[in-house]
């Protein structure tokens, strides 16, 4: 006989939205956008249907990386406030399902990109998935405070993949687009770690703020912002640069460096009293910074296609 009036918990059945969240859609959007720009600014036109299919498989590959990352990091995601609501820690998706989904999507995305695009683009996508899931997530993230510095390469490959889809090769332009994201990643994530340091400390993740402290990390943000600026400006003097990109890069990097300078001079007591308000704004600005650079490249390519843009000096 069953007791009436006693609620019995029903097992949760994962919804489509839970699986989609497992793929890290926020990261996926940035990956697809930068890959799209890399493809569009390339000197070889891609058929719209082929281009759409290739970008779809790039997105699936990015989602595969996200699922594998969430599978591996489920233990620390349960500890961190920022990640405790993710599908695995919250019990909406099992780790086994996440692993299977990540592996299957990896195989499908790489194979189909090879068929619709070319083998170089597929190889770059395969390496990107491997680098993010294995080199960064499984090895670097919990081993060294240089995790973001080296691991940032995983997020820097998409424009190279887009360029390879169009051209079947690699060029200085695609390498500089890679370098732009690679150099941008450390100050972007270190700004996040300044106000999420307690999370990383509890989880035992040796972010720079945990291993070397917040004051040292603040100085590193300024150093990387200064190193990033010439890389960003160099793209303006390649075949894909133009006046829109040059103007955008100058303005955005002046603001980015000035913000990093202010962060480097901020006393920890003042930042804590203001609940890291400025650091949070800098983190949000860094996202806009990257989007603006790639959007400017796209605008210059479109203007060049209709021959509306004045000639810009090409040095590389």
Q: What this model shows, in words?
A:
The chain has 316 residues and is an all-alpha fold. It folds into two domains: 15-169, Orthogonal Bundle (Tetracycline Repressor, domain 2), CATH 1.10.357.140; 171-316. The protein has 16 helices and no strands. The chain has helices at 16-22, 25-40, 48-72, 74-77, 95-116, 119-140, 147-151, 153-156, 158-167, 172-195, 197-203, 208-211, 214-234, 243-264, 268-273, 277-305. It is flat. The relative contact order is 0.11. Mean pLDDT is 93; it is low at 1-9.
Q: Quick recap of the structure?
A:
This protein is an all-alpha fold.
Describe this protein with a few key phrases.
316 residues; mainly alpha; Tetracycline Repressor, domain 2; 16 helices
Strands, count: 0
Helical proportion? over 70%
Count of DSSP-assigned helices: 16
What is the approximate shape?
A: flat
Give the distance, in angstroms, between the N- and C-terminal Cα atoms: 81 Å
Strand portion: under 5%
Topology:
Elements: H1 16-22, H2 25-40, H3 48-72, H4 74-77, H5 95-116, H6 119-140, H7 147-151, H8 153-156, H9 158-167, H10 172-195, H11 197-203, H12 208-211, H13 214-234, H14 243-264, H15 268-273, H16 277-305
């Amino acid at each position: 006989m069953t007791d009436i009036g006693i609620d019995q918990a029903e097992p949760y059945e994962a919804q489509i939205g839970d699986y989609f969240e497992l793929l890290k859609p926020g990261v996926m959007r940035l990956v697809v956008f930068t890959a799209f720009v890399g493809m569009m600014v390339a000197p070889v036109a891609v058929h719209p249907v082929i281009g759409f299919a290739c970008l779809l498989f790039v997105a699936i590959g990015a989602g595969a990386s996200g699922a594998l990352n969430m599978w591996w990091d489920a233990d620390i995601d349960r500890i961190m406030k920022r990640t405790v609501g993710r599908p695995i820690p919250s019990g909406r998706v099992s780790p086994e399902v996440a692993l299977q989904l990540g592996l299957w999507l990896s195989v499908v995305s790489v194979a189909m990109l090879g068929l619709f695009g070319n083998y170089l683009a597929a190889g770059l996508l395969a390496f990107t998935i491997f680098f993010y899931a294995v080199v960064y997530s499984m090895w670097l993230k919990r081993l060294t405070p240089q995790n973001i510095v080296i691991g940032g390469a995983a997020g820097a490959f998409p424009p190279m993949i887009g360029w390879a889809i169009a051209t079947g090769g690699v060029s200085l332009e695609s390498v500089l687009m890679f370098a732009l994201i690679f150099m941008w990643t450390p100050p972007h994530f270190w700004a996040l770690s300044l106000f999420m340091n307690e999370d990383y400390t509890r989880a035992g993740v040796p972010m720079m703020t945990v291993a070397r402290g917040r004051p040292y990390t603040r100085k590193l943000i300024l150093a990387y912002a200064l190193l990033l600026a010439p890389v960003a400006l160099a793209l303006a003097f390649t075949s894909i640069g133009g006046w829109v990109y040059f103007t955008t890069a100058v303005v955005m990097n002046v603001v980015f460096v000035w913000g990093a300078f202010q962060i480097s001079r901020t006393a920890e007591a003042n930042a804590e009293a203001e609940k890291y308000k400025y650091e949070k704004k800098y983190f949000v600005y860094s996202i806009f910074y990257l989007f603006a650079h790639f959007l400017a490249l796209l605008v210059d390519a479109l203007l060049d296609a209709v021959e509306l843009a004045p000639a810009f000096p090409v040095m590389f």
